Every structure is written in structure tokens, then in C-alpha cells.
Records
---
Amino acid sequence: SAGGDDPAPPLQTDEVLALLRQRWQFSHGVQVVQRNGRLYFQVLWHHLEQQSFPLSEAEYREALAEIVATLNGLGVAEQVRQWLQTTKDRPRLGKALSLPLELPPGRASEFLL
């Protein structure tokens, strides 16, 4: 709800996993990276369903939960949720999808230390 006072509900690990699978049919790796003083949420091309994927399902879920906690802590849950629901791009071999995060005032400096 744009402009409302009710903050968006925090992201849940299962919700992000469902969005990834809904959009791209796979459980893609995700990460938050810092570049030139900006933060990006990235969907990686490798995914849990590949034999070469380096993590077990339990490890993947644990890593995803940490990213989700970071996104919630940064106050960008709704941006990420909207983007995962609407992006038309696909992760391609060697090329991650990147969402530049718009951080609420004050959150960036805490994170970018």
C-alpha cells in the first residue's frame, strides 16, 4: 500500500523461495552485494536443483534465511517483494539479476561499514 502508514510485513524465507520458484521454476541463489557505496539484491544463475550447486537444501535455506533477515533489517522487504513478483528478466549463466536497493534514511550507514 503506497503512502500508507502500515509498514509492509517482513519477508519470510518461504515466501522468497516461493517467489523464486514461481518466477523462474528454480530455487536460485540470492545475495546482497555492496558496490560503489550502493547495495544490490541479486538473484544468481545457479540454483539448488542443479547437481553442481554447492549447498544442500538445508544449507541453502539457512543462507536464504540470513539474506531475508538482512533485507528485513535494511527496511527493503517490500521493494524486493514487488521486484520478485514483477521482474521480466531471467538469471542467465554468468549473469546475476540485480535490484539496486533504495534504503530508508539512516539504514545505509549502519550497513555500509
---
Amino acid sequence: ICGGCPLMHVRVSGQGAAKLGLLRTRLEAEGLGDLCPGELHTGESVGYRHVIKLVAGKSDIGRFRLGMRNRDGLLVPIPSCLVATPALRRLMGRLAHHCKELNVFAYEEARGTGLRHVVARQSQASGRVHVTLVAGKNGAIWRELAEAVLSSSDEVVGVALHINQEPGNAIFSRDEKGAIRVKGVGGPMMLEERVGGFRYRIGSGDFFQNNPWVAESLQTRAIEISRSFKGRPMVDLYCGVGLFTVALAKEHGWALGVEGLASAVLRAKENARLNRVLARFIHADVAEIAPQIRRKIGDNAPF
């Protein structure tokens, strides 16, 4: 009913056929129909999503509510979401309870204060959960909410706070340096995930695949393809925290990652050190710097 999984009523095979059909239609419209893949590689059909992003708002009778906005604009609670992990489903119920208990109110643009979003990520490797509260203004209430969540759940190990005063529906805002700023209000600031034998530290606002099975499948495939280009420099565009860059650097001895989010670049550098690989990361807009990168690696030498 939230609209996030419009094909959930169809069998997994039927979902795959529908998605491929949509993709094929779009590609054919551009004269690229021959590029459409013939099959989908899927993992678990339920309980696979390790990230949830909730909106804070009001019900139709004005009560506080956490959930997702459906296609009609209504805020729908999803504590029984089939695609989220069991731990994240449990967290949604607890969060809503604590918010009501502490009289937390949803963000109001006119006042510039209140809870806007909640983002939670679970590590498949450890089972631990990290929560980021997104609010309009700082205040003691967020530490109280963090303490309530931490005390009521053995799975939640850390809570961070991000202040977003920008208009619109974007969850995170960036500072003048292109970084997403957060402060700890309880426990560690980051979560660690393991994919393909590599360790990755992930912070609030960092992009990382929400399906660890798919992440490992993509990483493995990328490495397999890269072996056909031995001796060539490996470049990972839109690298995030280094999911592919770290693995490529391990396989080829060096890799370059380019990312537009400054805080993700810092995390990618940390992940390269954590995995003891040689990699360089550049904070830049990919579209702007791509020609420069092409010129510099034209001689196939790391720079």
C-alpha cells in the first residue's frame, strides 16, 4: 500500500519479466533494444533490504506518523514491510512509539523545526543497526530519542543527527564543501559491512547497496570483467565509499575512484586503508572531470 513495491503481488519470475519488459520498451524507444539483458540476477525476495528511509509527518487525523508517502501523497506506516530486514521492521515500531512518548512532532517548514526523516541501516555482517535522525533544528529532544532507541534495542548500536534546513524533500543537505555533516547523539557514528571479503565503513548519507547479496554479485562480476583489461588503469566513477574501487585496487594493484560527495570520499580513503590497498580518490563532479581523467590516464600510468 505504500507504493514502494508495485509488483509485490506477482511471483518473483513475473516481477522479473515485468521489469525486463519495462526496460526493453525504454531501450527500444532509443533504438537500443539489442542491449536489453535477457535475464535478471536476483537474491532473496523478502527481508533483503538493509536500509529504510522514513518520512515523519501526520496521519489524516493529525497524529504523528512515520512511514512512506504513497502515490497519493498519504503517509503510510510500514512496520510489516516484507522487503525490509526483521530488525528494521522491529525498529520502525519502536521508533514510532518513542516519538509519540516523547511528544516529538513532524517537521513544519514554517517553524523550521521538528523531525523530517529517519534513515536506518543494518549490517549484514554484524546484524547491528545505525540510525540517523534528520531534523530541522538541534535540540535536547534528539538525544533523548536516541537514548530511548538505544535502551530499547540490542540491535541499534549508534544514533546520529543531521540538521537539514533546506526546502524541499531531500533527506540530506550538503555544506559548502559538498559534505553531509552529522553529529553523534549516541554510540558509534559508523557501521561496518563486509562484501566479497572486504571491510567497508559506512556513515550517515553514504551510498551503499541496500542489498548485500546484490552488492557482492555486482562486485564479483566487475572484477571478472576487469581481468580482460590487465595492465590498464582501473577507474571507478561515482565510487561512493569504494565498493568497487577497493576490490579493483586489490585485483590490479591500483585504482582511481571519483565521487561528488566529499564525506563519501573521506570514507572511501578510510576503506582503502582499512583493506590495505593502493587507491586514489578524487572529490569532483564526474561529468566535469572525466575529460581530464581521460587525458591523464592516456599513457596507462597511475597518477
---
Amino acid sequence: MSYTVKLVAGLIGTALLLTFVGGLSYSISKGFAGFYGGLPFMLIVIGVGAMAVYDFWDECVRKK
């Protein structure tokens, strides 16, 4: 696969993942659980998001 296709596909996939889990975390924190009820899930989402961004950088951006 070419570098450009890999870069664009990885960027779109990572952006969709971060948008989905970020919105889910936001709705849980603003909904019935409240901020402190949604805090553990928010921390998990931040960790997963950081891992997803690092994996995108490692697989698509960094030249090996």
C-alpha cells in the first residue's frame, strides 16, 4: 500500500474512533452519571485515545 493511502486511511480511522469515544464519554459525563460518575470512563477514553494516536503515528507517519 502506498504511503499516502496508508496515511489518509489511518487518519480517517483514528479521527472517527476518537470522535466516537470522545462523544460517548461526553454524553455519559453530561447525562445521568454526572461528571464524577463518568470520570473513570473519561480517563479510560483518554488512555485509549493516546494509544490510538501513538499507533497511528507508529504505523502510518514514522518512516521505518
---
Amino acid sequence: CIICGQHFIRKHPGQKICSEKCRQEANAEVTIRVTKPGNGLLTEMQPQVGKTYRARRIPRDGDGGVMYIVPGFGKYGVILKEEEAETITV
């Protein structure tokens, strides 16, 4: 499971989350601190490095990691990869 790290038997090939509880946690709002600039966006269109933002965490396809969607940037918000931000506790 990309959220809790537990091994589980997949019900379908693309499944990356083990349970409903982990699915809810995966889509939960979190506070993040941006650690690296995002790729492919103009500087003025992306969150600033070092600042904190409210974001929604979502599972990432492929390698099983996590991405963050930060609202307020562009029409739909901006997506940051897991290595571009860190979750913090407020």
C-alpha cells in the first residue's frame, strides 16, 4: 500500500491502496512545505519554495508514490511530486 506500506493482495492490477481507510487518507487535505520548485511552470505560477500550503494528497500512477494538488494556482491548481514537498504537522 502506498499509504501505510502494508503488503496486500490486489483485487485488480492497478490497485495501489489496501483499504477504504487508506483511500480516505490518500485523498485527505494536508499541510505541505514546498522543498523544490515544480517542473514546467513559470515561477509566478507555482508555489514558493519554503512556504506552507494546504494541499490534497493523491496517489501517483506508475511508481506508487504520492502527489500533492495545491489549489489557487491556475484554473485547477498545481501538482507537486512527493519529492518537491514535505507534509508537515501544524
